Amino acid sequence: MPPPVTEASGSLAMRARQRFWRSLSEAEGIPDATLPRPIDTRFAPNRRDFMKLMGASIALAGVSGCSHGSLEKIVPYRAGPAEQTYGKPVFYASVLPRDGYGVGVLVETNMGRPTKIEGNPSHPASLGATGVIEQAAVLELWDPDRSQTVKHGGTIATWNDFLAALQAQFDARAGTKGTGLRILTETIASPSLHAQIQSVLERFPRAKWHQWQPLNDDNLHDAAEMVYGRRLDTVCRFDRARIVVAFDGDFLDDAPASIRCALDFATRRHAHAAADARSRLYAFECTPTLTGAAADHRLPIQAADVGAAIAQLARALGATTVDVANVLPDAWIAAIVADLRANRGASIVVAGRRQPPHVHALAHVVNAHLGNVGNTIVHVPPAADDPTNQLASLRDLVEAMNGGAIDALLILGANPVYTAPADLAFASALAKVPFKVHHGLYVDETADRCDWHVPAAHPLECFGDLRAFDGTLALQQPGIAPLYDGKSAHELLAALAGDTTRGNRELVEAYWQRERASDFAAFNDRALREGIVDGSTPEPINVALRGDLAAVLAKATPSQPPRAADDIEIVFVADPRIGDGRHANNAWLQELPKPLSQLAWDNAALIAPALARRYGMENEDIVEIRVGGRRIEVAAWLMPGVPERSITLALGFGRTRAGHVGNGHGVDAYAIRTSDAPWFAGGVAITRTGRKHALACAQTHHAMEGRDIVRTFTLGEAQACTPDECGTPRYRNERTLYETPPTGPYAWAMSIDLSSCIGCGACTIACQAENNIPVVGKAEMRNGREMHWIRVDRYYEGDIADARALFQPVPCMQCEHAPCEVVCPVEASVHDAQGINVQVYNRCVGTRFCSNNCPYKVRRFNFFQYTDDVPGLDSQRNPEVTVRMRGVMEKCNYCLQRITNAKIAADVEGRRLRDGEVVTACQAACPARAIVFGDLADAQSEVNRRKSSPLDYALLAELNTRPRTTYLARVTNPSPALAQSTQQSRRREAPPAGAVDTRPRADR
Amino acid sequence: MATDAGTLVPPPGERYTGAIITDKIADLVLVRPMHAGYYVGFIVTAAFTLLFIVAITYLFTTGVGIWGVAQPVAWAFALTNFVWWVGIGHAGTFISAFLLLLRQHWRTSVNRFAEAMTIFAVAMAGLMPILHLGRPWFFYWLIPYPDVMNVWPQWRSPLVWDIFAIATYIIVSILFWYMGLIPDLASLRDHARTRGKQVAYGLAALGWRGEARQWHRFETAYLLMGGLATPLVISVHTVVSLDFSFGLVPGWHSTIFPPYFVDGALYSGFAMALVLAVPMRKVFRLEDFITRDHLAKMGTLMLVTGLIVAYSYMVEAFNAYYSTDLYEIAMMRNRYFGPYAPISWSVILCNVLIPQALWSKRLRRNPLALFVLGLVVLLGMWLERFMIIVASLERDFLPSAWHMFYPTFWDLATLAGSLGAFAFLFLMFLRFLPAISMSELRKDVRQETIRAGTHT
Amino acid sequence: MLYALLAEFADPRALLDAVRRCRERYHDVDAYAPYAVDGLAEALGVRKNRVPLVTLIGGLVGGAGIYFLQWYSAVVDYPINSGGRPLDSWPVFIPPTFEITILGAALAAFFGMLLLNGLPKLHHPIFNAPEFELASRNRFFVAIRATDPEFDAVRTRAFLEGLAPIKVSEVPL
After folding, report:
1. DSSP 8-state code for residue A255
2. Which of C78, C80, C84 sits opposite A817 (nearest CB)?
3. Class of domain A150-212+386-464+480-518
4. A932-974 pLDDT per residue, tens
5. Domain range for residue C99?
6. Residue ranges per domain, chain B?
7. For residue C74, which residues of chain A lie inside 8 Å, CB to CB?
8. Taking CB atoms and an 8 Å limit, are A823 and B404 in contact across chains?
9. Alpha-carbon Rg of chain B, whole angstroms?
């Protein structure tokens, strides 16, 4: 029997636990996700689901099969291409779009197949890390649902047909100088593409260029105009900020720069960060976000109150005189003001892109007032080309279309039929245009309503260039030739400009030859190798506040109209996984649980338990939401930390033409999103329909049950730690009867820093891509059969109204005394000499005893043949990782294949592996540098340094499993001034005793 | 005319000589006056056997995913059925071997069908661990043999011990049973009228002649087998219990499991023996051989083992709280107040409360009551296995992994199918083999006669 | 040609007396009964019984064999690190050892019994005897084999008649 865990110990961890005990009782009301009711697990439907999930029917696969045969002549493979060695991956530096801005990546190709994305260390938006979107890009590339041929009126056509049709249009309108010709794109941050648009506009002076993407920066740019008189981008340097105040600003997840922001932010959040360097984050937000979860102080306020909140702060700082009702507790304001004043020039006040311009304007004012500009804040010329107000631009277009003034419309990449605000009725307006061309990756809702559809080449298939959020330029190069008849936007625009001869590459290179006539060859080669254009980072520009700022602000800032006591608002957010819906057909992203709700495959109306209590709602109840005469029905999900009178709904779901994977999941929030209130709207009415919609939730229990799972210390407590005083004794101190078995030259181990982990889930997707982990689908997730090798657990601490979320990534712990090994009857689960608990797939018979005996439940079992060999998708697989069959157990193995490759390389050079030479997939992707992997046998290794910290602890150490993976406790840095008052405010917001039990009947 | 006499051995004298016993029992097999109830039972059980075959076929072609098992509850019905069936087998061996050593002559009337029950139950049990494998076609990898991978079984795993225990158990049970059958097969051979039966039973009887030296060795070997089977039966369920107590799941990781499981096994076994005996003696008019006293004896054994089970429940709960172990206490709380509480409380009801009725002597001598109680205890014991396996797995160490288990249709089909197949095999046994040991009964009757003779 | 002379009795006590009487004059005496009559073997002068010894050997061979197999495979042939436990974890070798000991002993007991009894032997002259099928029902038989030196068809028959059997019959070879 393991040494019993008693509450007798007086150690800090125990005190921490007692805090959890208390909070447990408080957290009684935290809703447990509905436990799934039994699901019919007959295989036939499941099999179909898998085919769908894996994105293809055989028919599609067939098409993809033949479309490979291009008409170029085939030459025997005598001398391979440069840098290509059989069995060795080749990495190409390129750049992928994130809301239109560039994120530098390295594309791993195996024998010409892009299989994995890594971050580009030299690119400012990545610094080597990646987000979930970048990781999942390879699956999108190989998705057999992608549009594969030119389509005319829904029937297959050819590129030449299209060119002919285009020519016919020109001929018909010869000499009209392009009157009635319109081009609609998304945000463009690409010099070459912009140049081509310009050349089109030169050829057709009366033509017009519109922009629209739902997740745009209108508010930021308008605010800049309001404050500085010109549109510009603001770059926040969180690595320099000691105090950060976020007003509904989810900079860690919901911004083009969020990867970089997370990296910078983490530098001051690591458990081992010096106390005086440590930053403090205050977050006022409506929807619980990663930023809010990372905050030292989070206060849930309605989205509509954020403006008043920041105004209140600005006034308290004396930065402005704008007068609106107070919404924040005085204690908070006092504490924040004190902190900000004490850290002039080393603080950041940031607002989210959801917030209207005047909120950003106030943020600018406060930052200027605190002298942050130039230190923690720099202004740069906008990275986007022609950063116009996209909503206005779209409105013009729709008006023109309705006015019948448009006779030819080219839509590049955008999907306005799905994403345009409902009140604009884009679809009906579009119907009035005689010649409509759509260019995109999928035959989506918009393509459906266009006469012509041209398949877009995937970013991994074409050349190009993209500016990052800070304006840094990087060249894009393909990892593979277009799989289908995909055309790049360059080619399409060139055709429009009358140039139908040159291909994607010539067009891009031609542009740069013009730009860099002097040293093009060197420039191009260098830029492609580095993945970044040297010296392209624009200089910060010094701008002065407008003289009439006060007046402008006073005009822009609405004095809060007194809202009715029970006026409920609805807030639209980008889905943390599939964004605005463009990634809806990506099974990896769909199945990746959303960071806080832990939901997958659906969006849901996130409501506060208090609100649910008022309306007698439970999880999965379908509610009707009416706002501004529009209505949708969507399943409700109870979410701690949501303000009582606020409902959050994610965009991007309810797609009808996304593909086999994305269609029919969730509800289309655009249906009630109007142009006058694109982000949040009041006056919402909700009613229960009495029906239920099954949701898949990866975690059905949220309280830590008073167990020592996620350790949290305040900075003070952490400093008080001595190695033996911090928490229960470490596993290495535990006694054992067995002599340690002989070990090899290396002893691999991992350390996960819960202080810097922001819970984004990039590790999970990176692992999925690296290790050929199958997707199981919604039904199987509800059965509790997801396959992720590293999951991110989320626990709640504190009372229900303002519960603090704690994240904990859980991979295999690689126990030295692994409970799974001793119970495996066939030696399928064994220990190797470097301390890795390896799973021998071809020996496993599937007794599942190992999974039962694993206290961390990190083992995953193939209950069905999850991995279907769908032609196309199998090309994404990592050739170095076995594909597991039905009936076999699998789990994390510290990316054994990477270790082996590195060891071979080292052996060839006859040397020992250097620290940091082996990087696991999860570690490489992590934007918070929370994961460190290395060799315990190397005294100097980073992992050893981390494990020597008193904050280091082993999960469930009392079981004496002696895990190689350990954690650094979460250290918070609360404001001393605020400590009690938070308690008070919490008590104020705490639900009455005997709060409604929202757990499902089965669990009561 | 056959009155339900209250003796453990049919009375001596004219009514029951060795001749009449032999004729009466042999005719059940040879001259077949089959009761209509038999045919009904035959059709029903055959149907369920078919369901069993369908369920297994679908399972093998599709995967264990058709069951409700998932993370963290990776074991559920299959293992529950396994433990339950093995347990049922135990009473058979206990009656035939243990009582043999204790020279309990009353066993003679019941040991034959009890052994048959054992064999068929263990056969069902033996199937379950194979069915629940992810790749059942590789089950033989648990058996040590020099294979191409040059690897051996991992001897630390209780699942390997299982293979040895179950295999040994079923082989020994069959040998023991067959050895006891040999003289009776000879009787059938000699009584058979048709050539076909003479040949069939003749072959099976191996040419037994009833020669004195043969009897001599036979008795020694039979006694030795009994002596071997007794510790075996204890060891088998001990090993089965180690499948759980060897793991560190709260609710499994307990030192009381071996005795607790063995006793529970006997408990359910006696229940099954009663459930089989009561209808059998009625349908085949064996009231004079399996008398109310036999039933009462088994009732008493059921009561005793039941009390030990109740005690084990208390010890389990006590240990949990006495250990002050966070997880053990949470497990115990979850077991009786968590989502599976209804199951746990029905276990208490079926295994502890209702069987107390057996204190009543009148009830112990009432076949119908015993039959019903047997069914209740069988249900209770199945639920107990389910409670131990599933309710413990559902919530172990990390709350983030907690997840409910719900059975699917195929879970239930496999259970029902195994019950059907068991009953079907038992009916086949009654049809083709003597349900009571004639040779031993002949001897007992003789000794009764002698005793009676000396009394007068 | 004769195999033996067979006397039939209705009662085990009669059988026992008969056997004792026969043993005084004859050596090759067999007795047949529908169940194991206590004292019959002794009356026939059966002293030693090898079944227990065979059983013991079977058990020892089984136990020793499986323990060696476990030790050899886990320590010598394919040593692996399983959960950081010692290679020679003798306690976990016990359960299989116990089970296989039992198995070996049981197999030895069963087959030892058969072989020592000369079974299976589907044909035997004694089956030719009239009414011998009753030997498995309720009749008891004593046979004096023709191989006995003292055997003489006439005198032996007279001797058997003297034991007051139900009847005496000849068993052809």
Report:
1. S
2. C84
3. alpha beta
4. 999 999 989 999 999 888 888 889 888 888 899 999 999 999 9
5. 51-116
6. 18-455
7. none
8. no
9. 23
